[in-house]
Amino acid sequence: MNEIEGGSLDEREQAARLYATYGPAVYRRCLRLLQDREAARDATQEVFVKLLRNARRLEEPEAALPWIYRVATNHCLNLRRDAGRRGEQPLDGALELASHASADLPGRHLARSVLSRFDAQTQAVAVGVFVDGMEREEVARALGISRRTVTRKLDRFLERARKLVGGGEP
After folding, report:
1. Any idea what DSSP says for residue 131?
2. pLDDT digits 0-9 by tens, 83-94
3. What value, to the nearest 5°, has the Cα angle with vertex 152 and ends 69 and 106?
4. What is the CA radius of gyration of the chain?
5. Are the CB atoms for 102 and 127 separated by under 8 Å?
């Protein structure tokens, strides 16, 4: 966060607000992908440096969380890929995670295909709840929407996803 430390008071305050709002979601995403608490903490800080370089994209709450998830996911996957290329396996559980991922490649492809049929906010709600294990209240706060809206979007997501997976186009 060195780039921010030298910044103006407004920039530091903005960084603190963003971290308070999105920090837990970014950390959970990094932890889920890296399977290592220390690596997830480091990755969270690195992700925030990237996010703060493009802070204007965070001004729209509806689009912010999906973008944040993409940045965090890509960063963590790059860390894993780079470690693999160097022949390292520094992350506990990385082999186990990789074997589960490759064993369920068709399932991952199906999940991505289903998610792509929904708007960005519904994608953020579904990933937050089903992938990152966030509570509905947490998702609602992070997206700036009501808990009721989160529940409604989840219900619609599940109904439509079942139809898509079952072969029937909604």
Report:
1. I
2. 777 776 544 444
3. 50
4. 17
5. no
Residue type for position 95: L
> Which domains occur in the chain, in start order?
1-92 (1.10.1740.10), 104-170 (1.10.10.10)
Query: Within the chain, where are the H helices?
Result: 2-5, 9-34, 37-53, 61-85, 94-103, 105-115, 120-126, 136-143, 147-165
Q: How far apart are the first and last CA of the chain?
A: 46
CB atoms < 10 A from the CB of 26, how many?
A: 26
What 8-state DSSP symbol labels residue 59? Answer: S
Question: Which whole-number Å values give the CA distances from 169 to 110, 118, 152, 163, 165, in the listed order?
Answer: 14, 13, 20, 6, 9
Q: Which backbone phi and psi does 85 adopt, to 5 degrees?
A: -65, -35
Instruction: Encode pLDDT of 91-133 as tens digits.
Output: 444 434 444 444 455 766 777 788 888 887 888 888 888 877 7
Which residue reads 């103006």 in tokens? Answer: 8
